[in-house]
Amino acid sequence: MFAWKDVDFSPQKVDTRKLEKLANKIVSVSKRPWTIMEVCAGQTRTMLEHKLDQIIPDNINLVHGPGCAICATPLSKIDKAIEIAQQDDVVFCCSGELLRLKGSRVDLLEIKAGGADVRVVPSPLDCLALARKEPDKKFVFFTIGFETKAELNALSVWQARRLGLKNFFLLPSIPLVVSVCNKVLKSGQSPVQGVLCPGEVCAVTGYSNYERVARKYDVPIVVSGYEPVDLMEGLLACVKMLESGRTDIKNIFRRDVTRDGNKQAKALINDVFEMVDSDWRGIGIVENGAYSLKEEYAAYDAERAFPLTVESRPDAEFCIANQILLGFKKPTDCPAFGKSCRPSDPQGSTMVSNQGTCFTYYKFLHDQEH
What we know:
Blueprint: H1 16-29, E1 34-40, H2 41-49, E2 60-67, H3 69-72, H4 75-85, E3 90-94, H5 108-113, E4 118-120, H6 124-133, E5 138-144, H7 150-163, E6 168-175, H8 177-186, E7 194-198, H9 199-205, H10 208-217, E8 221-224, H11 228-244, E9 249-251, H12 263-272, E10 273-280, E11 284-293, H13 302-305, H14 321-325, H15 357-369
Parallel strand pairs: 1-2, 1-7, 3-4, 3-5, 5-6, 7-8, 8-9
Antiparallel strand pairs: 6-11, 10-11
Helix pairs in contact: 1-11, 2-15, 7-12, 8-10
């Protein structure tokens, strides 16, 4: 059992009094061992940064799900982006965080230094505006994100078709959280008994689609926020459901999430995108795992406009990212963690992004121990 006085919290302001009360409540209601997965990378970061794992009882095992869209993006997609960026008359646009995302050999920043027209552009609508100003160039917007980014991407493509633009293309990687939750829980002998679901994603999608997942696998799912108190409230709600045998969904992020989500956003997304089976790096094929542009918007699909063949290297054979993402192991179980696999030299999906589970462990555990 933890000793509250021994916990050295992050210097950021947290309501330690409320956290202590929530921790004590979890202790009082949890009688049996439980394995609970927080799906979102932002939740994992909060857990470790604020040392919440140190103030919960030892019988609660926290595992960390596949909630980083960059980590989920196949290396072949990144390699395709780098190849497209090097084509004649292409202006390749993306957010700054994607410039250092390593492909099999190089990253976008390296080819930019070599003369490719790669620009930091904050949104697809900004890229669309640039395409209107320079009709002799082909503008490609590379975007990676969960359902929260889908609406803006859909709007850009919808607007491009309305304007009749011929030089704007979208290269999206939009993996779907609910689909990968289904994949995690259906994996053979999954250790996950309860799930904390990301409130930000559910603000768009709603949580009705998670009700089916909870019923199918007899697992309680709690829609939670990202602040320390939010997560502790989510853990408490999940433990209560587990102890009582309830396998339902509970929304404790009521300030932003409703059952049906943002109906207007969903209508636009469903007009432009369709769900397709997709490859999640570190996991494999996920049924209905990502959004893809519908046939009527195919003219704006960068992969169709630039049918290039790329050869991508596999992740290191020793990488256990698959086991981490499915909840069977933690980064510290990998013998390469912090040694041959580091943020400066990532060997698998969970280390390639600053939102990846291994990266987060390295930052908040490994760095503090060395």
